[in-house]
Amino acid sequence: MKKLTFFLVYAVIVLSVFSYTSAKEKTNLKQLLHAQYTNQMADASSQLNELQKAVQQSLLFSDPTALNDSLQDVWRLSSDIRQTIGGIPLDREFTTQWMNYLGRLGNQAKLTMTSEESKTNWNKSVSNVASNLSSFSSEWDVATAHLLQEDKHYNKWLDQLSNMDVKNNFTNLSATVKSYAESDFPLTSSETDNQKKKDLIALKDKVISEKEALARFKEMFPQYEKATIRIEQSEKTAPYPFYHITFHEGIRLGYADITKKGGHLLSFLVERPVDKSTLSQEELINKANKQMKDLGFDDLEIEASRENTMAWHLNYVRINPSNKAKVYADGVQVKIAKDNGEIIGINGMEYIQKETLKDQPMKKIDWKTFFDKNVEIVEEALSYSENDKMEERLCYELTVVYYNKNVPLTFRVLVDTETGEIIKNEKL
Amino acid sequence: MRLFKVLLIILMTFTIFAMNDVHRGEAFSNQVIARGANGDDVIELQARLQYVGFYTGKIDGKFGYGTYWALRNFQEKYGLKVDGIAGTTTKKKLTAASNYNKEFVMEQLRKGNRFTHYGGKPLEQQVQQGTGTQSNTQLPTKYSDQDLKLMANAVYGEARGEPYEGQVAVAAVILNRLDSPEFPNTISGIIFQPRAFTAVADGQIWLTPNDRAMEAVIDAMNGWDPTENALYYFNPKTATSEWIWTRPQIKKIGQHIFCL
């Protein structure tokens, strides 16, 4: 009996010490987190003030150097606040809207530094931005004041976030910022163009039925004629409507998404075990090319290929028939199994709506003076690529090699054929 | 008797030499390899090109531009057709001109060591302790091996019980956030954004991902997006946030609803 009592007392003491230590550690951690969040919150407030000043300062100058300094501040501060806000647990809707607004403000400032046209736009919108930021700053102070009180710890912080009054404060802030984003930085047509994947809603093709979608799927992939197939429609709130087909046949399990308008293939992916024996690279690529042509993709060319454990990933780009230029924005990605060259994946989302390409002058550029004397041009082609303003521009696409202490460094440089501006410089 | 011994020694020497030569000839597989290829054949190609001083880059089994230029230079020097493709003739010539210590190379790769394979220098002097195992995956240039590892951890932690499509979908949501101005602009920033992923909050992100999760991330990085541009997802059975139900829904895959 004595022994049992001893063990019980001993166990109770050990448990008490353990619970006490754990509780203490937890409290310390919560205090630490609270301190960190408070610190970030305070940082966000002061950065907001700085940003407000920088935006106002940019109103003062017409001298390009002075204006650029202010714009650089706006760009840097908007990025800093985004980083800070991203690290604080705040109302998600508010955080999203606020980061969106700051992103747009920063992008606009960066664009203004490089483009005359944007400078005019900046001058038009910046006074609005300045006054919006002023009133936002006041609302922010009200909404966050009690989160910065010293005697609160992490639990209270979280309680306050879920508290109705605070939530309302943030909901108001969220709505305010959303309205600022819409008024100060409306989407330009080129930005809308950039969102082509999301803009499949604009498809004008005839709506197809579930039965027609299924027939389309079987026409493209006759090997799944006898598969167990399930077809569903996208949710009503989806930005563009599509059919979601899942199928299962033997070792193959996969899905295909097909647009309701026009029955275009958005995406197709199959999961299956892949044998260790592999076909040669040449055979695989030839097989892929043939299958793609059979599927109706007859204006594409392979731009890149990458071998991985089970499959090759191939990047196809559309070739513009008039000048044979590659259109990167109208790409199709293909996955082929290494064992037999079967296509086990197609991503055709970007190919459905082809880019509108404008005529563009082609000025001759002297590459000898354009590049360093140690740079060798090894390949020259034409391609379309998006510039900072999200416009598709015709470019000279140059693959160049630079030998740095006998080590060859390869780059792909895209130069605007009209302005000579470098649109992209990518290390390969 | 002495003559017999001499003859025996000569014969044995020839046999060893001939066996060694056969080993050299059979070293590569029959595959023709070119830019984009990945694997043991490319490892051998890089090691052999390095042995004869044409390749100065990392021996990693990835046939990129570094290997391509080295191979072209070798072809040019040896009077072969200069096409940057390792076909039968090129491989034969390279095998004859170089040595390949497969055991050494594979061991260093397994250990993740930093090493070279130059001829004329003891191999043990060409090794430096590395940082562990290295990835043999080829990704689009904008992504790194670290991105792949982090995303695979996130996908495995968040969706390991989901169908393959659902795993690609979770990876695609992370990448869609990367393109959205509403989220942090790095993959780690997105994954570790406070309250963004359950797997981060409950520590499941630190589980070791399997090959399926890795493959799902590779597909997403190569462009597949079964979510059709979703930015969020949730499990309707376990979601406690009212806010998530207000998001415009796109489609359901497995247990997850994907939304904007």
Concise description?
Chain B: GO terms for molecular function: hydrolase activity. The complex is a heterodimer of chains A (428) and B (260). With 428 residues, chain A is of the alpha+beta class.
Structure description:
The complex is a heterodimer of chains A (428) and B (260). Residues 187-194 of chain A have low confidence and may be disordered. Helices cover 46% and strands 24% of the residues of chain A. In chain A, a hairpin with a 5-residue loop joins strand 3 (252-259) and strand 4 (265-271). Chain A has helices spanning 2-57, 64-86, 92-114, 116-144, 154-162, 164-184, 189-194, 210-220, 281-294, 367-370, and strands spanning 228-233, 242-249, 252-259, 265-271, 300-307, 311-319, 326-337, 343-347, 375-386, 392-404, 407-416, 422-427. In chain A, strands 1, 2, 3, 4, 5, 6, 7, 8, 9, 10, 11 and 12 form a 12-stranded mixed beta sheet that branches. Chain A has 3 domains: 18-186; 201-347, TATA-Binding Protein; 367-427. With 428 residues, chain A is an alpha+beta fold. Chain A is extended, with a radius of gyration of 29 Å. In chain A, helix 4 (116-144) runs antiparallel to helix 6 (164-184). In chain B, the strands form 2 sheets. Chain B has a 3-stranded antiparallel beta sheet, covered by helices on one side. Chain B has a two-stranded antiparallel ribbon with strand order 1-2. Chain B has helices spanning 2-25, 40-51, 65-77, 88-97, 102-111, 145-159, 164-179, 187-191, 198-201, 211-221; strands spanning 114-115, 127-128, 232-234, 249-253, 256-259. The model of chain B is unreliable at 14-26 (pLDDT under 50). In chain B, a hairpin with a 2-residue loop joins strand 4 and strand 5. Chain B is mostly helical and 260 residues long. Chain B has 10 helices and 5 strands. The longest helix of chain B is centred in the N-terminal third of the chain and has 24 residues, at 2-25.
